[in-house]
Amino acid sequence: MVIGNILIVDDESINSETIKDTLEDVNYSVVLAADAAEAKIIVKTQVFDLIMMDVWMPGQDGMALLEEWMEADFTMPVVMMSGHAEHQDVVKAIKLGAIDFLKKPLHDILPMVRKLLSEKSGNKDKKTESINLDKPLKAVRNIFEKQYFQHHLSKNNHNIAKVADIAGLERTTLYRKLKDLGIGKK
């Protein structure tokens, strides 16, 4: 029984084959892409629970592909990987929409993948908590708004600009509202 579908985009075949073997041993289905061009073709026909992508690749690099996908409202979660990333690379990847950034070589890959996929499924399966309509309107509205923004932040990889557009709010208004509701930045 397959427990998750994962795409690994990495030009270092030794690295990607090692990750693939480790994950397939515990029933993940893993597909490999050697570069951005191959990854683009694969994601047109297959859906993945997680995409793990190297930053530095020949041709289009991983960061450029991440940006391209996020601008096209890509919904599959992407984790960036690099063996020699600078702090600004990590920050850029997260701002672009990556859900995490892993340093290569990847040690203990199974706990990392399990954590990432459990967070994803926890957000996806989370039901809206029932709201006690006997409470004052402001309290009920705050509960609803908190659930609403948490849902859209999670669904859009915490991209504030996208959530502001969805909610019909200015970004500064959204930041203030999130702070008032006790929703921290990721």
- State the end-to-end CA separation: 33 Å
CATH superfamily of the largest domain: Response regulator
Helix run count:
8
CATH architecture identity of the largest domain: 3-Layer(aba) Sandwich
Described by the principal axes of the CA atoms, the overall outline is elongated
β-strand number: 5
Query: Cα-atom Rg, whole angstroms?
Result: 18 Å
Widest sheet: strand ordering: 2-1-3-4-5
Structural class: alpha/beta
Helical proportion?
40-55%
Return the domain count. Answer: 2
| H/E element order | EHEHEHEHEHHHH
The CATH topology of the largest domain corresponds to Rossmann fold
The overall average pLDDT, rounded, is 85
Q: Would you state the CATH class of the largest domain?
A: Alpha Beta
Low-pLDDT parts are: 123-129
What proportion of the residues form beta strands (DSSP E)?
A: 5-15%
Largest sheet: 5 strands, parallel
